[in-house]
């Protein structure tokens, strides 16, 4: 939606508005931007929404579109392909980065040429990119705090093979042409099984093999069991030697401290606070704050 606002002058020529994965469009809180976009489109346009599932966010999107939208739902269950190996490593939260760095150090031995690391927040994405760069790892980061031009540049470096590892949030990776990769790492376990399926679907495409490794802490156990129930497959244990993994723990802890200081220096912390403030103000102005709170309570009670 933010990118669409840049080319809003061309909207008078639009005859069709097509939104793929429409159930995810409002995940990043783009409701106000979409409202403006819809108002600028010709009323004679045809709106087409495509989604795997009907959600409350999608119902909001249909209401925002004003004119009656054509909605296509194609839910066939959330399944993963047989050629995908799904593994986990059960760890303490305080050594999560240590295990991640160890796995990345073994990419060549594992025959992995390219990997995507999925995280849940922009903050984690930025911090991890700084940490890995401090350890001389070649990575690109993709999150919504970055301008679209910087996101596309990061993606180009990854697609062209300049860097073998891409760090990404779910929202930032949506709608971008990310190629098939050999390995997907779930640094953070997603809240919903559908997000897990979308993530690991970046590998093991077109009949080829692929590997997905999930870093699981004690707080993630219920989420993992829910994912296994939905996809109908139990994850296998990722084998690694603990003494080998922890050999560089001091070096990695130091790199994390340096990365945290760099985040303060580059103004990320202030940008994050300002963005949260703007989001809350927008929601409050539109009377959506209570609605969103009720939605979260419903989601918690449904678990």
Secondary structure layout:
Elements: H1 2-6, E1 16-19, H2 31-40, E2 46-51, H3 56-64, E3 70-73, E4 84-90, H4 96-105, E5 115-119, H5 122-134, E6 139-142, H6 148-159, E7 165-169, H7 170-173, E8 183-186, H8 193-200, E9 210-216, H9 221-231, E10 236-237, H10 242-245, H11 249-265, H12 268-285, H13 289-302
Parallel strand pairs: 1-2, 2-3, 4-9, 4-10, 5-7, 5-8, 6-7, 8-9
Helix pairs in contact: 5-11, 8-9
Write a brief caption for the model.
Keywords: ATP-binding, Helicase, Hydrolase, Nucleotide-binding, Signal. The protein has 303 residues and is an alpha/beta fold. It contains 13 helices and ten strands.
Features:
Rossmann fold, three-stranded parallel beta sheet, 10 strands, 303 residues, alpha/beta, 16% strand, seven-stranded parallel beta sheet, 2 domains, 13 helices
* Mean pLDDT rating: 83
Q: Percentage of helical residues?
A: 40-55%
Radius of gyration over all CA atoms, rounded: 20 Å
Q: What is the N-to-C succession of helices and strands? A: HEHEHEEHEHEHEHEHEHEHHHH
Beta-strand portion reads 15-25%
CATH superfamily of the largest domain: P-loop containing nucleotide triphosphate hydrolases
The shape, in one word, is: globular
Per DSSP E runs of 2 or more residues, the count of β-strands stands at: 10
Task: Supply the helix-strand structural class.
Answer: alpha/beta
At CATH level 2, the architecture of the largest domain is: 3-Layer(aba) Sandwich
Largest sheet: 7 strands, parallel
CATH third-tier fold name of the largest domain: Rossmann fold
H/I helix tally: 13
State the distance separating the first and last CA atoms: 30 Å
Number of domains: 2
- The CATH class of the largest domain is identified as Alpha Beta
The largest beta-sheet arranges its strands as 6-7-5-8-9-4-10
Unreliable spans are none
């Amino acid at each position: 939606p933010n990118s669409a606002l840049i080319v809003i002058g061309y909207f008078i020529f639009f005859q069709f508005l097509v939104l793929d994965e429409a159930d995810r469009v409002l995940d990043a809180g783009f409701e106000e931007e979409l409202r403006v976009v819809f108002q600028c489109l010709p009323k004679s346009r045809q709106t087409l929404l495509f989604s795997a599932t009907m959600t409350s966010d999608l119902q909001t999107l249909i209401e925002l579109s004003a004119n009656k939208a054509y909605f296509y739902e194609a839910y066939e269950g959330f399944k993963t392909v047989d050629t995908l190996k799904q593994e986990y490593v059960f760890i303490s939260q305080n050594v999560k980065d240590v295990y991640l760095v160890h796995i990345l150090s073994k990419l060549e031995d594992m025959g992995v040429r390219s990997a995507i690391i999925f995280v849940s927040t922009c903050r984690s994405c930025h911090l991890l990119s700084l940490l890995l760069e401090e350890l001389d790892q070649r990575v690109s980061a993709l999150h919504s705090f970055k301008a679209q031009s910087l996101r596309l540049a990061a993606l180009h470096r990854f697609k062209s093979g300049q860097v073998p590892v891409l760090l990404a949030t779910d929202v930032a990776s949506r709608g971008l042409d990310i190629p098939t990769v050999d390995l997907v790492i779930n640094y953070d376990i997603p809240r919903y099984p559908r997000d897990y399926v979308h993530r690991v679907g970046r590998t093991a495409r077109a009949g080829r093999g692929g590997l997905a490794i999930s870093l699981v802490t004690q707080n993630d156990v219920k989420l993992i069991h829910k994912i296994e129930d939905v996809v109908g497959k139990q994850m296998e244990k990722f084998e690694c030697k603990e003494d080998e993994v922890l050999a560089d723990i001091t070096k990695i802890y130091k790199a994390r401290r340096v990365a945290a200081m760099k985040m303060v220096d580059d103004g990320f912390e202030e940008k994050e606070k300002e963005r949260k403030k703007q989001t809350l103000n927008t929601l409050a102005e539109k009377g959506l704050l209570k609605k969103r709170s009720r939605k979260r309570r419903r989601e918690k009670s449904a678990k």
